[in-house]
Amino acid sequence: MQAQQTVEVKPNFNSPAYKRSRWAYIWECTFEYFVAILVAGSFLTTALKEGLGMNDSLIGIISSFISLSFLFQIFSVFLIRRVTNTKRFCILFHSIGQLLFTSIFLVPVLPFENPALKQAIVIICILLSYFGNYFVTTLIYRWANSFVDPTKRGSFSAGKQMVSLITGMVVSLIGGVVFDKFVEEGTPNRAFIFAAICIFIFSVVDTVCLLLIDKDSKDAKKEVVPMKLVLSNTLGNKNFRSIVVLQILYQVAHYMSLGFFATYNLYTLGYTNTQIQIVVAVGHLVWFALSKPMGRFSDKHSFAKGFEFATVFLIAAYLAYSFATPSTAYCYIIYYMLNSCASAGSGVNLNNIAYSYVDPKFFAEASAIKNAIGGICGFLASLLGARILAAVQANGNTVFGIPFYGQQLLALITAILYVVTLLYTHFVVGKQKVNKA
């Protein structure tokens, strides 16, 4: 009797189902990005300052909640192999998380006059929103990317970014004009209601796109893997530990200053929401133009090399911002253009880099662990940044007797941290052997 051999069926990436799933994923990311635009930057700052009366340091910390939310991914490590219906599980948590973001703009217009209570409600809702999103982020990423040819991940990620960027420009510009119009008229609540309605619509379409992605084929083959085996293939892997360190360096540099720039741009440099969104739109064009070349570069060389290249632009961007004052406000524009160049290769490569050094079977767990550890460190960095900013402002915006705004100092610290990140990427991560799977 001849023994039966199990033949593994290779996925057909050109099938209609796979193509539909990829396009649905592209548009899901696009509408998720629309929500992200409205709950960050100058829009978030306007809601928190004009609607809730928060100070600069608190706004900066709340703007950095996204880094703390990465901690929620660690919980998914214990569930990844136990979820029997990835699609249903992800849609439930992600959709609720997206819808909760409407609270940022609805709470300020609620008819009660207790600012402390309103602030508390918004902070809790933001945390719950990020929990719903980031609890399933790695699951969505692995599920949706299973329909992408592994040899074209860099190019696909770049194309996905390009769709989000071009369409996101329209959302940014319209939002900027609407916010400025109502704030100047003294009716900011109308802007907040407009934003809440937009978030609701974008969230619903986001959910529809997730519904159009095929079920995860791995659900039928799932087996419960002992946590010991998961840890040995992640934290027990020397190469993986190096990218955890890289994630920490990046997150600390990123959140040391970024959350504190929006108030500085609006209330010190003197930009309006519309002007900021015009700068953002031009930056998106730069990002768009470089996305495909950066994606091809990463596919050809490595995700580490792509990230290394992007970090050079990050260093230059934050050095430029460290010179931004009311009399040199144009430095913000230089910063944003350089940062847009970096964005074409920083986040995408850092997300994909786990594919290079971890067994693909443990990609979701590895990403969750990496992002959670980096996120905790990033949030702690934002708390340190808030302390530094408050100290400089209390000292009359001087450092060692020299006129220097707190945001300038934070930008300079960030630039130095990115230099360390670049050196670590080049001399440690970039020297490791890359998985070809």
Brief account:
The chain is mainly alpha-helical. The protein has 21 helices and two strands. The N terminus is likely disordered.
List the helices and strands and how they pair.
Elements: H1 16-38, H2 41-51, H3 56-63, H4 65-69, H5 73-76, H6 86-100, H7 103-106, H8 115-134, H9 137-145, H10 153-184, H11 188-212, H12 227-232, H13 238-257, H14 261-267, H15 273-300, H16 303-321, H17 330-343, H18 346-352, H19 354-357, H20 363-394, E1 398-399, E2 402-403, H21 406-427
Helix pairs in contact: 1-10, 1-11, 2-14, 3-20, 6-8, 6-9, 6-11, 9-20, 10-11, 10-15, 13-20, 13-21, 15-16, 15-17, 16-17, 16-18, 16-21, 20-21
Walk me through this protein's architecture:
This protein has 437 residues and is mostly helical. 72% of the residues lie in helices and 1% in strands. It is built from 21 helices and two strands. Strands 1-2 form a two-stranded antiparallel sheet. Strand 1 and strand 2 (402-403) form a beta hairpin. Helix 1 (16-38) runs antiparallel to helix 11, helix 6 (86-100) packs antiparallel against helix 8 (115-134) and helix 13 packs parallel to helix 20 (363-394). Residues 1-7 have low confidence and may be disordered.
